[in-house]
Amino acid sequence: MKNRWFSSLAVALSLASLPLQANELLRKDNLKTLLQEVFSDNLLQALAQQAIDTLERTIAPDLLVAKFLEEMPNEPVWGQLAKPYDLFSDDEIADLAAMFTSPLYKKFTTEGTSSMMENYQTIQTVFSNLAQTAEEAAPVLKKEEASSSIIEVTKDNFASVVENSSMPIIIDVYATWCPPCKKLSPILEKAAESNPSIRFVKINVDDEQELAIRYHVRSLPTLLFLLPGKSEPSMNSVGLLSERALDEKIAEFKKLF
Q: Is 1 considered catalytic here?
């Protein structure tokens, strides 16, 4: 009788645990969906490139991203990725997953980028107007700009400098408020001096939003490698590059012309 009671209890506990296991699996599926949307391909590529540059390796970032996606659902990687979301309930995780995969959010992440850039331009214009009319507290000395071998591209000179160029081109898409862009700038200057057969140019995303949107730029800094007569880049690179990593990219680019 006693054995039969323990057996019944074991079955009952096993059955009771089934909904819990199902909830855990559903939560993991929803969280995996959420994280795959949060960690965009551009972000993963940039993080992989930073790891490669730090270790000064010659691994392709695509390879690291593919390996990361394989490791993502497994321990201990999954446990570390999931832990920050412990403060969210199962229902909240499900709602977040639904929101990030909704058509509206997809539209916001694609078309909303141009809206944000337009807002940045509007804010900058307002600040410029305020700065012109505000009372000056003290004179501001302008820093003397050093000469650069990299051409600043705008929509006005884009056709002559880029589209009609007979030289291969490397475009640096940057922003003045972007710390990695500032670190990359002297590295690009040195590369431009060492590679006179390539035209180095730069595009400020805040000033030239249409050009940034044309090349689908979402992360900064972004380098675009264009062959003469081609409207689409033959190569691109996202994130900060070391001098060695940039030289390797340029060597790879040179094999195309």
A: no
